[in-house]
C-alpha cells in the first residue's frame, strides 16, 4: 500500500510533465510558423492596385503563405480593415487624395504612411494629345467637343471622383461626370483614340495608359487635384505583430515608374491578372529577392 502511494504521485507528475511539454511545443510552433496563416488582402479596381496585389499574392504564396484577394471599393475596404475582416491593403495615396479616409480611420487602421513604395503620383483630367485643349480653364469654351460636357470617370465612391466634383465647382464647369470603373473608363478612352475622337477622362499616374497611348493631363491652375503624392500601405491593427516577416517584406518594397509600368502592362496583356503577375515575378527575381532580403 505504501509503495502504491509512492507510485501514484510519480505517475501523476509524469503525466503533467508530458502534457506541459506538448503544450509548449504546439504553442511555440504556432507562434513561430507565420507562413501557415492566411492573409486577406483587400484591393480596389485601379490598374496599379490590381497589378501589385496580384504580384504580392504570387510572391507571398511562393514563400509559403495563403493569400486571398478581396475586390471592393474604397469605403468598404477601409471599414473591413477596421473590423478585421481584411488584413491589409497596398495602396494609400497621401497626403491629399486619401486624406478623408485617413481622417476617418486613423484611430482604427494602421497607416504605414512613412513606408512608401511609389513616389510621385499625379491625379487629374486628361485628354488624348491630339485634342487642342491644354487647361481645365479652357473646358467650358470647348464643351461641345466633349459630348456636350461629359467626363468619363471611375468608381463613384473613389477619392478621384470626389476631387473631380470639387474641380467642377471650383472652375464652375458646365460638365457632369459619368461614373463607371477604371477598366470601363480605359476601354472608352482606347475606343475614342482608335477613332481619333475627343474624350475627357479622370486619370492618374502611375497607369499603363501612358505607355499605351499618347495622353496628356490638363493643367490645373487652382491645384484642386493637389501636388504629387506618394503611395504607401495600410493594415488592420495588430497585423504587424502577427506577420512581422511580411511587414518587413512590404516595408522594403519600392518600385519606380518603369518597373510598375512593366508590371501593369504584363497584367493587362495576360489572360488573367494572376498570369500576368506570375510572368512579371518570374522575370524580376533579382528585384524581388532584394525586397525579401535574400
TrEMBL record:
It is found in: Cell membrane. Residues 37-283 form the ABC-type glycine betaine transport system substrate-binding domain. Residues 1-20 form the signal peptide. InterPro entries: ABC_Gly_betaine_transp_sub-bd. GO terms for biological process: choline transport; glycine betaine transport. The keyword Transmembrane helix does not apply. Keywords: Cell membrane, Membrane, Signal, Transport. The keyword Transit peptide does not apply. It comes from the Bacteria. One of its GO terms (cellular component) is ATP-binding cassette (ABC) transporter complex. GO terms for molecular function: amine transmembrane transporter activity; carnitine transmembrane transporter activity. This is Glycine/betaine ABC transporter. The lineage of its organism: Bacteria, Bacillati, Bacillota, Bacilli, Bacillales.
